[in-house]
Fold this protein.
Amino acid sequence: MSLEDRAEELASDLGADKAEVRSALENLVSYSVPLDEAVQSVRRKYGDDGGGPADPTEADIADVTPDGGNVTVTGTVLSSGKRSIYIDGDLRVIREGELADSTGKIIFTDWADAELSPGDTVTLGNAGVREFMGRTQLNINESTTVAFREETPEIPYEVGGATELRDLRAGDGAITVEVRVIEAETREVSAREGEQKEILSGVVSDGSTRLPFTDWEPDDHAAMAEDASVRIENAHVKEFRGVPQVTLGEYTTVEPLDREIAPGDEAPRMSVGEAVSSGGVFDVELVGSVLDVREGSGLIQRCPECGRIVQKGQCRSHGAVDGVDDLRTKAILDDGTGTATVVLDDELTSEVYGGTLEDALEDARDAMDQEVVAERIRERIVGEEFRVRGDLSVDDYGANVDATEFERVDDDPSERARDLLAEVGG
Ligand SMILES: [Zn+2]
């Protein structure tokens, strides 16, 4: 097709003057612009971008953000699996997983049945981007084009591998983990439409850390038994009070492993600041100084109905009640990087108090003031260094640790040095 013919066609497309369009094309071609490109350029000049919306920019995965609008990315599928979810009351099956290029990886949800499998390299044109559980998520929908590529670029990630529990984050889908079931307990929950449903929940460990799990289809997962070492495929990660939770559903498979995973009992040691900024940690070890003992510590009374603290004979839910005596401590722990309130139950409080509930009641009667109990706890622990183990959660009022262990750190430097030498000496 000659320049003359192109000019005529283009002018009629654009509804513009033919001589003007021809002159614009001639001008560009005289500067060695190929005719096709010259035509595109003139189209743009007349405000016609070719009919459809502009193609989103091709982006590196590391640069994709929810603020940037739709994107076109090329990446390799690391994982992909089905999950059923409720959208406005309707059950839908989606596919989710992770996509990576040389710059990074990103979680995706496929609403359009693109049938991506681990190992596929694809260019996703005009993919949606949104924030999901605080993360950037790619959305493949009806207006996304999916082009499978022949060549697989180098990526610094493993396709289809198992993930360590400590690397899991809320929002992860189609994950594989190899774990030991530490605790497993069946319980009933109310499911949709008021039905009762039996689920299995507990704790799994893989040596990197321990995490809670919930299995919504325990009948399909016979291998999920206490002390078993198993490979779980196609699970996803939810969040409960800031703590990641391994969640098994109808598309999850569980197979026994032919090796045994040690029942790791070590909680990861973190600084208070690190634990708090992560939003919540299941079973963590912290070391810090007790700055103060908060109100509501020592000898307390709980509602016999709901267990809430009774103040001046009143429960927040049940009004005037006969409170049941109990011991509790809320200690403020600080290690220079952050602060958390450590909550000690009756047993741990009894240890720091140095007496039983009966002793506390007797001390309170003698002093005619139950505050003497909290006062004595304060004297014994404020200013001292403690090693704490428990679950840390964060809410609007700050961080709380539900302590399972609370031990004084021996502050004798010579003893610490001896311990260290003994360790080095093996
Ligand atoms: Zn109550």
About this structure: Helices lie at 3-14, 18-30, 35-45, 272-277, 346-353, 357-367, 371-381, 413-424. The chain has eight helices and 20 strands. The longest strand covers residues 71-87.
